[in-house]
Write a structure and sequence with these properties.
By secondary structure, this protein is α/β, with parallel strands linked by helices. It has two domains: 86 residues, Transcription Regulator spoIIAA (2-Layer Sandwich), CATH 3.30.750.24; 249 residues, no CATH class. Helix content is 70%, strand content 7%. A four-stranded mixed beta sheet has the order 1-2-3-4, covered by helices on one side. It is elongated, with a radius of gyration of 35 Å. It starts with 15 loop residues before the first strand and ends with a helix. The N terminus is likely disordered.
Length: 375
């Protein structure tokens, strides 16, 4: 506790505070033992006089400075008078260490502030879009060079990543699609039974799974599973300065780290999409048999006769583009990781969210384009 060394150290003098002629007169001992007996509301005072204060410690100095701020908030500048040198130094020390006023943060933001925040976010999103486009160009250029010079492609790394993103993802993708088919068949049967059109549940399942849900949900699962793994793996190498070491040795991180991962995704996502379609149809056929009595042979016959092959091709056309989006964003965010674990976790989360968002946006754009061309 800091105190005025030249003042009377006795705490037997109770503190008093009274307002007279616009002046708040403080007297007695302003110390931590009795500071809570003083009122903190003294409206109308424009001057605080502490010439009669016998003893002042840090708690009393805080009371004086806080009272000055409270009075100044409603009545302009408030002056503190009557302080000796020791008291003045103590008041200045307490004033410098007062916590910041958070009232401004709690106030409602004006329309201008909201527009400014929106503009800053738009500019930030524009910068990210430009950087992602530039990164995509680098990856495509590296892929083009590998077509000309196949020896640049690291087959061992490619096969490894194909196993990680493809083979190891089959169980979760197949189970998810199977359950989606079951849900579609069950919900569709409940609604179509009201109109005596239960047999059309086959068309519902086929079009939904083959055209949209199969590849879209598979891409979302892959974005959460493999896209985050790409960001975490490359980000960990960036934290350990392994990426900088590659550049020092004259090796291009795009060729070594990015291209095999992106290419593995582009090769394996169509395969996962095919497995997803088959699992969804099997789940739908099983539930249709149980719930509606549509036998597997009837389900197969109606599927073949009433389902256009373009429904399947539409999903397969989307797959490489979705894979490119997931791979580019996952690797891009990984290369942005700094030297701390906080940035690794934050950018891994950003990678998953941004990948899923962009996949859904791309799916919507594909739907519009296919509708315009009549597919």
């Amino acid at each position: 506790m800091i105190s005025d060394p030249g003042a009377d150290n006795s705490t037997r003098h109770p503190p008093e505070a009274q307002v007279s002629g616009g002046t708040l007169m403080l007297s007695g001992s302003l110390v931590i033992e009795n500071i809570d007996t003083l009122s903190r509301t003294h409206e109308g005072a424009q001057v605080i006089d502490i010439s009669q204060v016998r003893h002042l410690d840090t708690a009393g100095a805080w009371y004086v400075v806080d009272m000055q701020a409270r009075l100044a908030n409603g009545a302009g500048d408030v002056e503190i008078t009557g302080a000796n040198d020791a008291q003045h130094q103590l008041l200045e020390t307490v004033r410098r260490n007062m916590p910041p006023d958070d009232e401004g943060d709690s106030k409602r933001r004006s329309l201008t502030d909201r527009l400014e925040a929106l503009g800053r976010r738009a500019v930030s999103a524009g910068h990210v879009a430009v950087e992602l486009t530039s990164f995509l160009g680098q990856v495509m250029a590296a892929l083009g060079l590998m077509v000309i010079r196949p020896r640049r492609l690291r087959m061992t790394s490619l096969v490894h990543h194909m196993q990680e993103v493809g083979w190891n993802a089959i169980p979760i993708v197949a189970l998810m699609s199977f359950l989606i088919g079951v849900v579609l068949a069950f919900q569709g049967s409940v609604q179509l039974r009201q109109f005596g059109a239960e047999v059309f549940v086959v068309d519902l399942i086929a079009i939904s799974v083959l055209r949209e849900l199969g590849i879209l949900l598979t891409s979302i699962v892959v974005a959460g599973r493999s896209g985050s793994a790409y960001t975490a793996a490359i980000g960990s190498m960036k934290m350990r300065e392994e990426v900088d070491a590659m550049r020092t040795l004259g090796l291009d991180p795009i060729d070594i780290l990015v291209v095999p991962r992106v290419l593995a995704l582009m090769l394996m996502l169509p395969v996962l999409g095919l497995i997803s379609d088959i699992s969804g149809l099997v789940g739908g056929a099983l539930m249709s048999w149980i719930e509606l009595g549509v036998s597997p042979s009837v389900f197969q016959a109606r599927l073949v006769s009433n389902t256009d092959v373009w429904h399947f091709l539409v999903g397969m056309i989307k797959a490489p583009f979705f894979a490119l989006i997931i791979g580019i964003i996952g690797c891009y965010e990984g290369l942005k990781v700094g030297g701390n674990a906080e940035s690794l976790g934050r950018l891994t989360s950003t990678s998953v969210v941004l990948s899923i968002f962009m996949v859904i946006v791309a799916d919507a754009l594909f739907s519009v384009v296919f509708a315009l061309v009549g597919i």
